[in-house]
Amino acid sequence: MRVAVVGTSTNDHLAPSLRVAGLRHGLSVELYAGVYGQYRAELRDPESALQRFRPEVMLLSLDAREALTGIAIDASAEH
Predict the structure, then answer these.
(1) How would you classify the pairing of strands 2-7 and 30-33?
(2) Helices (H), the chain
(3) Nearest to residue 63, comparing CAs of 39, 31, 27?
(4) What are 42-67's pLDDT values in tens digits?
(5) How many CB atoms lie within 10 A of CB 62?
(6) DSSP 8-state symbol, 58
(7) 69 CB neighbour count, 10 Å cutoff
(8) Region class of 75: left (phi > 0), else alpha (psi between -120 and 50), else beta
(9) Residue 65 and residue 58: Cα distance in Å, rounded?
(10) pTM of this prediction?
């Protein structure tokens, strides 16, 4: 199973736990950890490493501001 973890902070620390959880459920997990704070760009860019990875599952790890403010994925810093 291809799992992508992207968000507003560093996500590398989640990889070992996700792999172990997958193994406990009989799943082989291949992980993609997004670039720090670049999840919007990776989601929008059809040529990004995230898009090339073609995840089957995506975990968004967002801080409170991103999660609660309702900012659209395609919003720019100006809007």
Answers:
(1) parallel
(2) 15-24, 39-44, 49-53, 64-68
(3) 39
(4) 999 999 999 999 999 999 888 877 77
(5) 15
(6) E
(7) 9
(8) beta
(9) 20
(10) 0.78
The pLDDT of residue 32 is: 95
User: Please, which residues bridge with residue 7 across strands?
Assistant: 61
Within 13 Å of residue 47, how many CA atoms lie on the same side as its CB? Answer: 0
Quick check: 52 and 2 in contact, CB under 8 A? no
Residue 32 tokens read as 């993609």
State how far the Cα of 47 lies from the Cα of 1, in Å rounded to an integer. 21
User: Kind of pairing, strands 57-61 and 2-7?
Assistant: parallel
Q: How confident is the model at residue 79 (pLDDT cuts 50, 70, 90)?
A: very low
> For residue 65, what are the CA distances in angstroms to 12, 19, 25, 29, 70?
21, 28, 33, 30, 9
| Residue entry with tokens 């900012």 | 71
